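Hi C.,

You asked whether I'd gotten around to modeling the 134-residue construct. I have! Everything is below, sequence then structure, no commentary in between.
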Amino acid sequence: MTEAATAPLTGKALLQKVKELSNLPRRETAKRCGYYTVTRNNQVRVNLTEFYDALLMARGVPLNPEGSKDGRGREPTYRVTVHKNGQIVIGAAYTQAMGLKPGDEFEIKLGYKHIHLIQLDTKKSSNGKHFESD
């Protein structure tokens, strides 16, 4: 990539840049604000979650309300590891943040290097919340 990597914008500078780039798609805006990484294969990966978190912080929206930690006092990292038994555990911090309840059902769709969890609406057959994991 020919662009020099710079620190992502934050605070008022981020808000101003987002306003200037309001005509661009959100991925391009996030990239131009510095929220991207370059993979080993020189592919650009836009970090939308970090971008949105920075926007919320810049606008004064608290990101860590009480109860966002798991039962052991850890902050959610939005990363999981496959256990020795082949299972992936999402964790209570994430399900609570999404307002999920025991018995909520999901359809699993597998893709190349990703998993889509689509919440099933038991009252209707429409799709609800989408969760992705890389």
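If it helps when you're writing up: The CA atoms of residues 14 and 33 lie 7 Å apart.

Thanks,
B.
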